[in-house]
Amino acid sequence: MALKFELVSPERLLVSENVESVVIPGTEGEMTVLERHAPTMTTIKPGVVTVKPLSGAEQKYVVFGGFADILPESCTLLAESAVAVGDIDREDLSRRIQAAKEDVADAQHDEARTKAETYLHQLMTLEGAVGVLM
Known about the structure:
The protein is α+β, with helices and mostly antiparallel strands. It has two domains: 3-85, F0F1 ATP synthase delta/epsilon subunit, N-terminal (ATP Synthase, domain 1, Sandwich), CATH 2.60.15; 88-133. The protein has two helices and nine strands, in the order E-E-E-E-E-E-E-E-E-H-H.
């Protein structure tokens, strides 16, 4: 049994292969996608995508938002930005966190502040997760 998985960012196609499973960081919680999954579309929060290929070792990718389209035979994740965990630029992650902190400070309405705080929290959680993975 195999699931066709594609991980696409604006810069490039990172993964396009048949896999056993993929774990994605949906905004409503992590989801494990297997072949014959119910059709679903979900938004993605910053987090780690874990790909289990049919053969070979697990692969991990960091994504910064986007959405996933899941069908019984395939899963396509369109990420705002994505990179293999081994290629993480800690300085870039620090810059994103600093920018998010500035967005929180500059927010003029409660809704904008809440959204900025949520994104900052996700980035800080991701920073901790990446530290553990590396």
